[in-house]
Every structure is written in structure tokens, then in C-alpha cells.
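Why do we care about 3D structure at all? Because function follows from shape, and shape follows, mostly, from sequence. That is the central idea of this module. The next example makes it concrete: a single protein chain, its amino acid sequence, and then its structure expressed as C-alpha cells.
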Amino acid sequence: MLPAGELKVLRDLSFSVRRGEILGLVGESGSGKSITGFSINGLLSPPGQVVSGSIRLNGTEITTLSPAEMRTLRGAKIAMVFQDPMMTLNPVLKIRVQMSDALRAHARLGRSEIRAKSLAALEEVGIPSPEDRLDAYPHQLSGGMRQRVAIAIAMLHEPDLIIMDEPTTALDVTIQGQILALVQRLCRDRGTALIWITHDLAVVAGIADRLMVMYAGRIVEEGPVDAVLDTPAHPYTRGLIDSVPTRGMRGKRLTQIPGRMPALTDLPEGCAFQPRCQRATDACKTPPTIQTLSPDRKVRCVLPLPEASTVGASA
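And the structure:
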């Protein structure tokens, strides 16, 4: 049973996403990635709530909006695509009904305008025979097709920000590649900001401009995706990269980070990662602060990896 009182799931989060930028958010299950997306979109289930801090969209403070005001933003200015499109799509309603409902929620349009916009959105995400798909039920479409429909619905109002929570996990590699290319093109052409939540470093390497690594509800490293993956500064990031299987590992044991992420009700003293970190010293029992390695690279670690520090110093 959890102790009474406030449990801080996310702490010390501070980041921004620019127009047309794709920000990758990675970390183990339970690190706080999805909760970050839900918090931005106002989808936290009670008793969860944002108790302090600020969330701003184009200068508008979101945390002070009423539920009704938040509904006017959600879908129009902020959209979210989930891992399983069946969580987004209603299985008993045809695609055209779900798209028309999404359009009518934020715009006064006639029937012909709704159909035209729906067809255009399906065509833009690469769905063949969009007229036929409008009259289909979700179960009549493949997993990749359903996810394309979910993305099309998210893009209907050309939102300023889209949050995608592991949207390609259940898809095969070929469809996954098509979705990644589609998302990159849409962000580039429309200037939409995107937060891509995933545990798959290979995916984020191919799509993101910038990468944030989360652990136990905090950002532990941030920087350009290539820089972070090539020369990680935090031992946790290094551990995630080393645990990715490669061709040269055939017949060998997979590398893994020892131990597991601590419960948020029982965080260790100082750095939350220090019980699992091979570089940990007594200095790690002091709560780490953010260190700036270069203008675009930050790490929350008392003893960042030396190769990243060298790169930051010469940048």
C-alpha cells in the first residue's frame, strides 16, 4: 500500500520544442515518458495532476485553463497519437464518422467540406482508395492502416504540437519505416512540432532532431540526437545504447543495465541511478544538478562520461 501524501512522478522537467522539430523522449518503462505526454495534453487521470510549474503553448499557459478551455485546444492545437490505434479509434464507428466528429469539434463545416478534408487527410498519410476507407470500420483495416488513420485525424486541424506515444511499436519493420518517413515529411512541410516517445533507440536515431533521456521522472541527458548517441554523457544513456543488440553479438550474451529502476516511493539518496551505476562514488549520494557541456548539450550527473565532456569542451 502506498504511503499517504503527494507522490512526485515528474520532477525538474524543463524543455521546449520548436516548430518543425522532432524531439525524441527515451527511457525504460516507468521513467515518466508517457506521463510527460499526458501532462502536456491535459489527460492525467485523477488523482494525478500538475501541482507546480508551467506548460506553455505559443505563450498560452495551459495549466490554468479550465477543462472546457482545454478541450478547445486538445485536437486543434495539441494532438496525441497512442501506441495502439484501437485506443484512439472507436471500433463500432466508421472512419468517416470519427473524422467528421473530430472536424466538427473545432470547426463549423458543411457535409461536403468535411468529406473533402477527410479524403485529403487520408491521401496525405498515404492511404490508398481513401473513399473506400472512409466507409470502413477500424477492424477492417490493417494495423499500419489504422495507425495512418489515427495520424490523419491528429493532423486534421494542423495542430502546433503532436505527441506520439510509441506509435510504431506494434507494427512490422516495413510499415514502421513508412510511418517514420510520413511523420518527418508532415513535420517538415507543416512546421508541426513533434514529441516522439519511445524506448527504441534505433527508431529515435532515424527520426529525431534532438533527444532527451529520462530516468525515474527526471531528464538526465539532452542534446542533438547524433551527439547523444555517438558520445553519451550519462552512464544511463551509455547503458541503454550498449543494451541494443547488434550483428556482431551473435552467440554472445546481451549487455544489460544491472538492477532495475527504483520505485518512486523509495528513491535512493542522491542520484536515482547510482545503485545501478558502475561509475558511482560517494559524490553520487549528493543530488546531481544539470551540467551544461555545450550550448546544446546538458547532463544531470556528478561524473559525466569523459568522452562527452571532451566533445563539449571543444564544441
